[in-house]
Structures are given as structure tokens and as C-alpha cells.
Amino acid sequence: MLDAALRSSAAGFLLVRAERASDAADRDARDARWSELMAAAQAGNARAYDMLLRECLPLLRAICRARLRDPADVEDAVQDALLTIHRVRHTYDPSRPFRPWLAAIAERRALDRGRSRGRSAAREVEIEAAGEVAAPGRDAEAEVALRMQAAHLRDAVGELPTAQRTALGLTKIEDLSLAEASGRSGMSVGALKVATHRALRSLRRRFGVEE
Amino acid sequence: MRTEDLIDQLSTGLKPVKRVWNPAFAAMVWLCLAAAVIGAGVAFFGFRHDLAARLASGFDTPQLLSAAATGILAAFAAFQLALPDRDRRWALLPLPAAAAWLATMGWGCLADLFRAGPEALRLSTSFPCLGFIVGFGVPLTVGMLWLTRHAALIRPTPVAALGGLSAAALASVGLSLVHHLQAAAMVLAWHGMAIVITTLIASAIGPRLMRAGLSARAA
């Protein structure tokens, strides 16, 4: 009886070890694959890059989720991390594992996001509360029209070039100072001003607002 | 914007990139540049008249070696730290050499004190020292900032500080070959102060310059 129990627990132990070993082997294989994809991306292979970023997304989200509570912040940090990865993709050395490189960038962006979250928390109003104050007794039709306008605006912003969209998002939507926005995006203050100005101008033109 | 859309945008029209140099090679290139610039400065001002005697007496040699080691190790550490996946403890690499420099200078002060009495510790001003180290150190730091500009989005301040330390330590070696300072206390005070000032300037302006460099490259 005892013997059988020992045997079964020993077998269980071996099984767990074997599973761990196979997990580690899977991770190694995945790391090697990511290294190859990144090397191809550095050479200009867009498909490899697209595939790599999509495969890394769960890992990026997990890293950011460990540091940030709000799901919207997590997604923002993931996007910040993707932008940084893009801008410093030439710093990856394919002879080294890919995961630590990726994780270091994601952790940094999540920390930044957490810090700016802490700073801006005091200035923010909950959306629900703001809605009640801003739109007392608004009828359903006006509500729909407003939502459609918002959707158009979102589309228009989505069609802006990346630099302009980033600049607009950081300086006008997140309301960061130019210095903070510059730190986050890696764009110089001058470039941010120009990109924000151009973004606003093209939005105004699109919606027929006089300059 | 959805994250998946961002990925689409980033990968559309992806351009090939040139990988950054590995830290050892980058440090070598930068050290050659620094040696050429400081060497030109030394050639312009001329070797100090008592250089051979000072080196033979054995006191200046450890000082020069430890300052040079600080410069070399700080440069290597800066290039390591500029890469996202490197351990932040690389920043400690130049500390033993810097401690050795301080120890050498402290020992020199004691030796002077025993030889010449309290007079040896009296400080006078030596602005040329400050000018030489900061004057060579800051432009060389800018060269380092350009080579490590990819650190702008990762950890710009420690990289810039190490760059400043490296440039100033190497400029201090150059200055020791040119300028006549008898007392160790003077060297400790003026070289030390100039190195600290250069490192502070580097860490203050470095992050901004790196960001500008990175944007210039992306444009």
C-alpha cells in the first residue's frame, strides 16, 4: 500500500519535472523563433515583424498587467512598448535571447505609464459622473448624433500619420506637457509641436472648420 | 486605436535597420576618437617640462593609469547600459577604478603632507585645469551621446552620466600630460571637481540631446 503510494507520488514528481522540462524546451524554441523573426524584421521583412509583434502581444500584456491595474492603462502601456520596440529595433542583437530585450522595454513603459497615472489621477473626473454633469436631459437623437460625430473623429484621427497621431494623443488627449510627451514618445519637443499642429490642421480641414 | 491596428501600421512599409555596434566595438571606436581629440590637445599645448621625472618617480603613473581605466570602463559600461536587455549593474563597472584614482590622490596628499608639511594641502585656484577637462570632456560627451542615442527611450540619464565620466576622466589624463600641478591636493581638487562638473552637465543635458538625436535619425 505504502509502496504503491510512494511509487505513484514518485511517478507524479517525475511527470511534473518532465512537464517543466518540456515547458522550458518550448520556451527556448519560442525564444529562438522570436530571435529569428526579429533578425528578419531588422533586415526589413514586414511579415516576420508583424508575426513577431502579434505573437509577443500576450507576453507584453502580461508584463504590463503585472504593474498596472486599469485595463485601459495596460493597453496604453502595451502600445507605448510597441512604439519603443519599433524605434529601438536596431538595438536587438540576434545572438542573444529575445525575451529579456522585449521584457525590459515593456517593463520600462509600464513603469512610466504607472508614474504618469499617479500624477494625473488627481486631475481626472470619472467618465460617468462627467456625463451627468455635462449632459442633463439630453434626448436620444442628440446622443446618437454625438456618438456618430465622435466615431467620425476617431476614424479621422486613426487615419493620421503615426507621428501626428502619437503627438496629438499625448499632447491633446492625454494632456501631457511637451517635455513629458517628448520623454514618452522619443520625439523632440519641436517635432511634437509640428506634428500636433499638422494633425489639428488636417482634422480642421476634414471637418470643414475655418482656420 | 486598437493595439492590433498599431501593429499593422508599424509593420507596413517596414524599413531595414542597421544594428547598433556591439558595446566592445563601440567603446573602442569612441576611445580612439577621444584619444585622437585629447592627443591633439596635448600636442597643441605640449608635454609638461617635468613629465619624464614625474613618471619615473612613480607617483603620477598610478594616477594616470587609474584615470585612464576609469575612462575606458565608464565608456564600456555606457555602451552596455544603452542596450535595453543589459543588467543595470554595468553602471558600477568604473567604480573600482574611480576609487583607485581617489585612493592614489589621497595617498599623494599624505605623501606631500609628510614631505612639505601643511603647506602642501593649501589650495589655490587653477581654472585652466577646469577649462581643459570640461572643454574637452563636454564635446567628447556629445559624441558619446550620439553613439548611444538609442538609450533615449530606455535609461538616458545613467548612460549620459557614464559618458560624461568617461570623457572627463580621459581629459584628465590628457591634462596631466600637459599641465604642471605639483601638489596632489591640487590635482584631487581641480581634476576631481572638473570630472564631477562634466558628469553633472552630461546627465543634465544628455537625455534631451539623445532624444533629439534619435528623432533626427528617425526623420
UniProtKB/TrEMBL annotation, chain A:
SUPFAM superfamilies: Sigma2 domain of RNA polymerase sigma factors, Sigma3 and sigma4 domains of RNA polymerase sigma factors. NCBIfam families: sigma70-ECF. This is RNA polymerase subunit sigma. Residues 52-119 form the RNA polymerase sigma-70 region domain. Keywords: DNA-binding, Sigma factor, Transcription, Transcription regulation. Signal peptide: none annotated. Residues 153-203 form the RNA polymerase sigma factor 70 region 4 type domain. Belongs to the sigma-70 factor family. ECF subfamily.
TrEMBL record, chain B:
The chain crosses the membrane at residues 20-44, 64-83, 90-113, 125-147, 159-178, 184-205. The keyword Metal-binding does not apply. Keywords: Membrane, Transmembrane, Transmembrane helix. The keyword Endoplasmic reticulum does not apply. InterPro entries: NrsF (IPR009495). This is DUF1109 domain-containing protein. The lineage of its organism: Bacteria, Pseudomonadati, Pseudomonadota, Alphaproteobacteria, Acetobacterales.
